[in-house]
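Because discrete structure vocabularies remain unfamiliar, we first show an illustrative case, written as a sequence plus integers encoding its fold.
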Amino acid sequence: MASVNAPAGTLIREWRQRRHLSQLELASRADVSTRHLSYIETGRSRPTSAMVMRLCDFLEVPLREQNQVLLAAGHAPAHPELQLSDPPMAEANAALETILRGHLPYPALVVDRHWELVAANDAAYAFLDGIDADLLEPPINVVRLSVHPRGLGGRLANLQEWRAHLAERLRHEYDASGDPELGALLAEVSEGGVEPVTSSALVVPMDLRMPDGNVLSFISTTTVFGTPREVTLSELAIEAFYPADEATRAYLQSRPLA
């Protein structure tokens, strides 16, 4: 992606190319002339804020990057960016806490756009006992923690399969966003090569060895806010883990969390 100081037209062109669209295809979808779109991309015409938003909508540009294009075009950002601790975010915080608490006794956590840990329930934190302290220094990167040999990676019975699964997710997210930090994380996870998943299972599990010798198997789901118009909320994801077999379910339901 272009630097944050790139002209608006350059940013729009790079997003169009990332979405594998020609000028004609984007112009047709956005109901603008190909000539006008060409003028915008080359800097011969400065797009209005409405035009920027229209093009970004058809290009599925994330909210943070939409603000970047608007600023580059000389317009005010359209989407606010708040901290979770800010008063307007109270209801969103309450929703996250309700989901995390309601998922017990199964682990669940909230991550941001770079897979850094935002919050987790007690079941998730319980699996961090004995993890190298350096890996638990904030900000905690969940992807790095899950594959590092001194993190959960040293306890995974199917580390290579899980690493391949994470690499696939990161590649998809990087292709969609162009975020350089995701690109760096993808390179880190893929270092040394990643073997493709060949299992016939419908869902890739995470098989975690416990200190008592049990191996717990989890499948995961991802939940996001449905219609966010604020940057921080648009970048949050809830990763909820469910038992992949009855033995794991029974183990977790019988295990005290405190």
The chain has two domains: 8-72, 87-161+202-254. The mean pLDDT is 93.
